[in-house]
Design goal:
The structure is a homotetramer. Chain A is of the alpha/beta class. Chain A is about 25% helix and about 25% strand. The radius of gyration of chain A is 17 Å and the shape is globular. Chains in contact: A-B, A-C, A-D, B-C, B-D, C-D. Chains A and B meet through helix 4, helix 5 and strand 13 of A and helix 5, helix 6 and strand 13 of B. The complex binds fe (ii) ion (FE2) (8 copies).
Chain lengths: ~260, ~260, ~260, ~260
């Protein structure tokens, strides 16, 4: 079983680039399941119905979210109905939407879980206990994908090792920069600290870089806008054993438009 | 001119692994200058005279530091004397040691600057203004290496773009996980968000992983110890134009001991 | 029913001052129950058996804790046995000790609960949900005291209003400075944002002020020591209706040694 | 010389209450200078021209600001022109407006300085060094008022003690809850950790309390609105020696509308 996990898709340029790039990838790699983090799909902050539909049309099957899940109010109108969209599971009980979903891939159930870290982020429930709880609800599912949306490398690595041998894949999202530490951990869990993002390559995390730099320098508030220019696509391709759910391999997928060469 | 920049070296395993690996790398790549971040060299926290000497003996020529610079009090006994060791320049005036140093490489002056981010870190002076000030002091130096020790990808990317065309190399350190975004920016500055670390591969940031996981789960204090087991070495190799200081290329260097294959 | 709640007791000077001051207060006000926050009793960080015994000997009956609960390892040897000592209830399940205790005062059960805020603090469970859970376990207790140990005024005020009409007293602790906002909320809950501390008046939060100032200015690590000199005692005296548990009044108690007059 | 310093004025209810209450206070106490923190005057976030004029009309002479200074864009149209309005001085060089102002009171120059803390706040320049710099520019002024807008009690206390003997008055603002620690420090500086706010008494920091509580419990974003209902006025009245600028006394001023008594 092959999975493609796509990192945070940023704004219109990100959604558009998924539509341009994904069909070719599907032909080339023929993944059995495509999951993507969509917390920044709506103009950098949140997810609209329209952006979600575009991503589904392009071939994404499951969307995960993160701290920006609620930034566009549109989400509240559809997150409770659409089983293909999940938000971090460790938001407190009563939060709209679900923190995990199960779909059928090659006749087998696959559990996809979205978690969020707490260090330098919001005050959520413990993601470690939450994932234990969710896994206990699905003792017969062996193919398990976890999106750990977190700020620090330590909290993501802790989740990877915590789930080693229990999940098929643990990917980090949120920092928008792909890490080069993809590996299959000793217990059979594929892991990467951050998948990276899909969106403008020459912005900062997909945002117009002049605005971001000015904010660091002035410490004054400023409106962030999604950047323009060449785009990049970051994902991981993971191969799982059909019977056991253990990962056989994980590799980074990186596609980018030509950027101007240094002068 | 070729530079090798080595990421955060963690504890005895990290220092030892530098000694094992670096001689072969020097033969293979023949870099003209070797710089390393040593904020974790002394048992994970700080830098001792002894650890510094080991790294110099192994072939490192300049050591940078970070938020852990002051964790071992030994540092105060030698940081004012040794021009080969620098600490983040944006610590306030009067801080022991220097935030930059100049050395001669292939008959040309090379300026090495250490900076620290502020987001989720200590309350230091503005690293953007500080680097402007330092560059203005050295208008005739064209080969400039900047270690931006920071937590967030956005603050490191902001520094990379801010210095594009003004520095030869901007590397991020601190998160201990190598990123896969190395590139030469349009203005000629080589950039990577994080170089990664040198130390135990199967810990969390080089620390015993059971302790780290337990701390996330219990939220109780616990003593961190450097991990054992197989080790990794993360660096970047950068080639600069001798005349202009512009970067021609940057590539990641990753060496690791054999880890047990997934069962 | 009269309660005396004493704020964070800092180090030897704090414990000693409680012993000097409390007997007179007991004679003067004749409270039916004396509770104190003891997270800083052991030299500023944590609680030792010896410090706890001194406070019990002085007339304190129940000790609450906070983020410093675990700073002295002694706590692990007695917190599970001693029902008079509680730690924040929203530490995760499995944490040593208990987050609440029940004692009998004037033939009535009194429930004392310790909670901790999350803003700018550790990643604990939700204190609002946790207190709901604890109150639901004790539907027949009407005299309820809550120590909300938190950094921000907003999180403490939120807890006060959240429990208005359900608790008899909600006090804030942790910031060591008494606030002047004590009142009985409309539903009958006595409230104060921070009780203040017991310890050296001319330090900063009870700590030697030169060290604290130096740390702000240098951003270098430094060992904090409990200050010397004149001492202060901060508490609140609350009167509850015996039948309903509603608060009738809350007043601040402030006692201090003579400090040198301004020159 | 008598000074009245009014804490953070929140929204329309706060501005309106200043207009109702201040004239009587001016008659009663006859202060020579009235300063107020106005960072929340414009609907809870920022300062408009209109709100500033209302406060000046009511008798306030100098307005200080804080982290919310820039929340309403109106500020950028007048902060550079109006010497009666200052923003935290430790914003970086080039920030609109000024961090201090000098006015004449009873034929003597009075320096008013606005500073902001850094702990749990933005990454500004060091407030301790900044105030040293400003004081050094005005060696002949002995009447000096400092508004230290900060989150933690320790950073505010550190500033109070740091300036003891050098400033006439150091007040904390930002947490909106008045503290009960007003005193004249040994060197002659009047100090209080927080003056408190002017605005709705039954909100949370002046904001509708249901919204604030819901945000803590759900961790979802929500729009904050200024609360309705009875209002409070928090200030300090300070008496300074005309010749030396040393403080003779500091006392809290608290005025509030009738709130419903507990049932
Ligand atoms: Fe994102
Ligand atoms: Fe995110
Ligand atoms: Fe670091
Ligand atoms: Fe490090
Ligand atoms: Fe505390
Ligand atoms: Fe405390
Ligand atoms: Fe503020
Ligand atoms: Fe405010």
């Amino acid at each position: 079983m092959k999975l493609l996990f796509i990192g945070d898709i940023v704004g219109v340029p990100g959604c558009q680039y998924v539509r341009e790039v994904l069909p070719g990838l599907l032909r080339a790699f023929n993944p059995d399941l495509v999951v993507a983090n969509a917390e920044n799909a709506a103009n950098g902050k949140g997810l609209t119905r329209k952006a979600a539909e575009q991503l589904f049309d392009a071939g994404v099957e499951i969307l995960t979210l993160g701290n920006h899940a609620w930034d566009h109010k549109d989400i509240f109108t559809f997150i409770d109905e659409d089983r293909r969209i999940i938000r971090p599971a460790n938001y407190p009980e009563g939060t709209p939407g679900s923190g995990y979903t199960v779909c059928t891939v090659r006749s087998r159930p696959v559990l996809i879980v979205n978690l969020m870290g707490r260090t330098f982020m919001q005050s959520l429930d413990c993601p470690f206990r939450e994932v234990d709880r969710i896994l206990a609800l699905h003792p017969h599912i062996h193919h398990i994908v976890v999106d750990m949306h977190a700020e620090t490398t330590s909290e993501k690595l802790a989740m990877g090792w915590y789930l080693d041998g229990r999940a098929s894949l643990v990917v980090g999202t949120h920092t928008h920069v792909p890490t080069a530490d993809e590996r299959v951990l000793p217990g059979g869990t594929a892991y990467i600290t951050d998948v990276g993002m899909v969106g403008p390559s020459d912005g900062i995390l997909g945002i117009d870089r002049e605005t971001v730099i000015r904010r660091f320098i002035t410490q004054l508030p400023s409106k962030f806008a999604v950047a323009n220019g060449p785009r990049q696509f970051c994902a991981v391709l993971v191969e799982l054993d059909d019977a056991t759910g253990r990962a056989r391999s994980i590799e980074r997928v990186y596609i980018a438009e030509q950027t101007p060469a240094p002068g």
